[in-house]
Amino acid sequence: MYAITGISGKVGSVVARTLLQAGRQVRAVVRDPAKGRAWAGEGCDVALADMNDEAALTRAFTGAEAVFVLLPPNFDPSPGFPETRRIVAALHGALAAARPARVVCISTVGAQAKQANLLSQLGLLEQGLGDLPLPVTFLRPAWFMENAAWDVAPARDGGVIPSFLQPLDRAIPMVATADVGRTAAELLQQPWTGHRVVELEGSKRYSPNDIAAGLARLLRSDVRAEAVLRETWQASFSAQGMKNPEPRMRMLDGFNEGWLSFEHTPRRGAVELDTVLRSLV
């Protein structure tokens, strides 16, 4: 049995379906009974658990050969990341009690960075689970290509995509969620000992200009990228309703300044940017 958290998301759903196609038994760990019924219809066992509920997570993980861990996204965390710390504590207690044979956790490129930023939440996950006496793999993917979903409407409506990644011609590591999910499913089925880090990017690197060019081809219209001035970020994010935009801003700084980067030699995925853009359009 493979217990999958975050199963309704882009990565978790690929993990689950890849395992199901391989003939593995899958337990969908969800907090919404309606989503549980949908996964039961695909042949999954279902466990209801909130990611803050250690007892429910323990029940969900008990009897599992392997557990896939994906933190719920929090783009506007409170200072000090108390929400993430509570979830990590619950996960630690549940995994220590259930003792699956192995665990794969989705982390991020740059999880090792010392500078506080939005992705520090995944660094806290690695640190918080780092003393578990279990085989644990931290899978660190690059920037998700699917983040370009935000660019489709402005590209279609005005021919300009605002970019927080700068300079516009600088290519950075990106990866498709399909590659992340398939890699996680592969890792879950492999035996290993101790703790390890696996880093993952796509077959090539892309820039904001590459995203604009790809959307231009698909929309058959002129599309260009335009840098959003750094001094406008805080007001822009606050206008969107964010209470604490600083971590998000520092994350973008990390990519733009290069200190959010891989620590080791990453694996390579196969999905290209145009394939993801086509699905988004």
CATH class of the domain at 2-146 and 175-203 and 262-269 reads Alpha Beta
Q: First CA to last CA: what distance?
A: 36 Å
Which strand-content bin applies to the residues? 15-25%
Helix and strand string, N-terminal first?
A: EHEHEHEHEHEEHEEHEHEHHEH
Rg for CA atoms: 19 Å
Counted beta strands: 12
Classify the helix fraction into a percent range.
Answer: 40-55%
Q: What would the principal axes of the Cα set say about the shape? A: globular
Compact overview of the structure:
This protein is an alpha/beta fold. Helices cover 41% and strands 17% of the residues. It is built from eleven helices and twelve strands.
What does this structure look like?
The protein has helices at 10-21, 33-40, 54-61, 82-98, 120-128, 149-158, 177-188, 208-219, 233-239, 246-257, 273-280; strands at residues 2-5, 26-30, 45-48, 66-69, 102-106, 136-141, 143-144, 160-163, 174-175, 195-201, 224-227, 267-268. Helix 3 (54-61) crosses helix 4, helix 6 (149-158) packs across helix 8 (208-219) and helix 8 packs across helix 11 (273-280). It has 11 helices and 12 strands. Strand 2, helix 2 and strand 3 (45-48) form a beta-alpha-beta unit. The protein has a domain at 2-146 and 175-203 and 262-269: 3-Layer(aba) Sandwich (Rossmann fold), CATH 3.40.50. It starts with a strand and ends with a helix. The chain has 281 residues and is of the alpha/beta class.
Please render the helix and strand layout as text.
Layout: E1 2-5, H1 10-21, E2 26-30, H2 33-40, E3 45-48, H3 54-61, E4 66-69, H4 82-98, E5 102-106, H5 120-128, E6 136-141, E7 143-144, H6 149-158, E8 160-163, E9 174-175, H7 177-188, E10 195-201, H8 208-219, E11 224-227, H9 233-239, H10 246-257, E12 267-268, H11 273-280
Parallel strand pairs: 1-2, 1-4, 2-3, 4-5, 5-6, 6-10, 7-9, 8-11, 10-12
Helix pairs in contact: 1-7, 3-4, 4-5, 6-8, 8-11
